[in-house]
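Work Package 3 committed the consortium to producing structural models of liganded targets before the mid-term review. Because experimental data for this complex are still outstanding, the team generated a predictive model from sequence and the ligand definition alone, so that downstream docking and mutagenesis planning could proceed in parallel. The input record is reproduced below exactly as it was submitted to the modelling pipeline, together with the SMILES string for nicotinamide-adenine-dinucleotide.
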Amino acid sequence: MTDHPPVRMGIVGVGTLTLRAILPHLTQADIADRVTVTAVCDPVLARAEQAAQDYGVPAAHPSLEAMLAADDVDAVTVVSPIGLHYDHCRRALEAGKHVHVNKTMTTTVAEADHLIALARDKGLRIVASPGEILRPQVRAARRLLRDGAIGHIAWAECGVSFGTYHENEPERTAGKTAIDPSWYYRRPGGGPVYDVTSYSLHQLTAILGPAKRVTAMSGIRVPSHMFQGAEVRTEMDDNTFLLIDFGEGTFVFAYGAAAGRSNPQFAAATYHGTKGTLDGILLNGEMIEFEGREDTLDKPVTDWEGQCRTLPHVTGPHRDIPEAHIFEDMMQLVRWIREGVPSLATADHARHVIEIIEAGYAAAAEGRTVALKTSFDLPDDDL
Ligand SMILES: NC(=O)c1ccc[n+]([C@@H]2O[C@H](COP(=O)([O-])OP(=O)(O)OC[C@H]3O[C@@H](n4cnc5c(N)ncnc54)[C@H](O)[C@@H]3O)[C@@H](O)[C@H]2O)c1
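The resulting structure, written out as tokens with the ligand in place, is given here.
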């Protein structure tokens, strides 16, 4: 236990995710002794002010600069478009604030390197979503594969697709100001790989460890989307297929596609081995054992939200608020700041996933295979 006061958290970006999950989670009474939201910021000030009023947040600012100048936060959660994450994390760290950043942390390894160095030099903490490594299901899968449950792993497949998810999110049109999704289709930071395949790549690398090489093919399949009657042109690849080498002849096919899925368990990989198949949390068709499994039994294995109830801070009301895994990641930062317990959801791990993505796009553009340089430590214990 600690007598550290509650962490004063600022929210950068009051868009869909903040309204659906960040504010509902962080303003629950059960965590008021550990974290309190003291400010929000968004260039659409009317939306930030409305949210501040709805959730009892003391301050709403029109920019991150204004929020940092007010100096009423100890830490920020960055919930802005992915292409802005680097700039927002950098400014927050330079101002002496700890950072939780939503996926994907940055779009390049160089940016990730800079954030990691900044945090280290200033003695600040970064927790990077998605904290897939924290999930007992992922730890159990790693143990099973390590112990030979499917023999030699020959190959695996994983990925997620865009579909029409972002233009149809109900939060985008529920308020007085529509929340424009067009950044999901633009550079930098758009496309399904940075958005959703990052979950698969975090799971995969939490289980198999760092990868060695990447090659890919990538293009634009759906040239435009419609939002509120207006056409949004697709300017970033929306159909990307990676082939990843994990060494010793183990290869993984990962996709961030315009549509379609190979596995109904969100972001889960299917591992094919010489003695069987591990498909998400199904070993040769039977559900595996994992810590907290009893909290998921009323939900099908395909229910992502239900399967996230196993995370350590996801208790009480948080079990039924959407995107509980992001709440977990934010509480990992809060605990690290208050109690000095480092999170396994590290910026080093996020950087390695970013390298796989960046290398994949370079490989596709140049028709080659790219060797990876970054790495990260997996804990020695049962992970
Ligand atoms: N939408 C989801 O389902 C979802 C789920 C998990 C994680 N995320 C992550 O959450 C983050 C935000 O996604 P979203 O879907 O909520 O996006 P969004 O488009 O709904 O909202 C982004 C918000 O950021 C604001 N913004 C733009 N420029 C800004 C700036 N300079 N300073 C501060 N705010 C600024 C926009 O006005 C908007 O309110 C992304 O990292 C995304 O990967 C989204």
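Reviewers should note the following from the model. The radius of gyration is 20 Å. These observations will guide the Year 2 experiments.
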